[in-house]
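Journal club side-thread
Mid-discussion, someone asked how the predicted structure for our own chain would compare to the paper's figures. Pasting it here so we can look after the session.
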Amino acid sequence: MKNKNRFLSLFTDEWQLKIAALVGAVFTWFFYDMISLEERYLTVPLEVSINETVAPLRSYPEAVKLTVRGRAEDIYLFSDEDFRAFADFSAHDVPGRYAVPISVQSLRSAELLNDIQIDTDPKFLDLAFDWKVTKQVEVTADLKGFPASGFEVAEVRVEPAFVEISAPESVAAPIETVSTIPIPIDGSRNSFSVLAEVAINDKTVSFTGDPIVRLYVTVSEVYIEKTFEPLPIELNHSLSGGTLSITPQTGSLSLSGRQLLMDGLSAADVSLKVDLPELVPGESVELPVVPSVPEGTTVLQQTPQTVTVTYNGEEN
C-alpha cells in the first residue's frame, strides 16, 4: 500500500510545478518549431473579377506578394508559376466602395501544402466603383518634331477619326479626345502614312476595340512671299544717239515661291524691263513694263505696269 501511495505521489505532489514544466516544454517545442521554419517571398499575378455594370475609380495592383512559410525543403519546391491570386467583386453591381479578400489557389498537389503557410500582401483589395459607360471620342495625332527646313505639315488625317472608350461615368464625362502615341516627323520631306496606337494614361479607361488607327500625314514645301524694291527699270534699245527720259525710273516686284528657292534670291536675280520701239524725237510714249523672274516663282504684284518714255533726239 505504501508503494502504491508513493507511486501516486509522483504525479500529485507539487502538481502546479509539474503542469508549468509541461506547458513550458510544449511551448519550447512549438517555439523551436517556429524558429526552424523559413520564409520565401513570391510575386503572382492578381486576377480581378468585376461586374459588367460598374467600373473601378482607380487602378488596382496587377500582382500580389505571397509569403510562403515552412521547412526549407518544402517551400523551395514552389515558384511564382505555382500560384494564382483572385479578388472577386462580381457580386457588387451598383456604385459604392467594397473590400474583398484576396484568395490564393495553388496549381501544385494539395499534399505539398499540408506543411506550409501562405499569406498575401495585401490581404484585402479595397475599391470604389462608379457606373460603367462607353462613349465615342475623337482621335488626334501626336506629331513630334519638325519637317525639314522649307517643308511643313499641310494636313493630318486620322482613320478612323473616332474610337470608343469604356470608363467610370465620372471619369469618362470630361474626355472628348484621345491622342496617338508620339509619331516622329523630324526631317520629313515627303508625305507618309503609318499605323499608330491610341493611348491614354488613365488606367481606369480602356478601349472597347483595337486602339489602332492609321495616320495620313501630308508634308509639302513651304511657299513664301518676298518683295524686291526699289528696282531700276531697264530700257532695251538700240538708239545710237539722243537722250531718253523715263517716268517712273524705279519699281517693285512681289514674288511667291518655294522657301528654299526664295531664301536664296536677291534683287540681282529679278528685273523690270521695257522694250523700246522706233521712237520719234520729242514724242512721249507709254510702254508696258515686263518682269524678269527666276523659274519657279510667281509674280504676285508689280509696280508700275507701264512707264512713260520720251525720246529727245540727237543734239545738233
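Post-session note: The longest strand covers residues 124-140.
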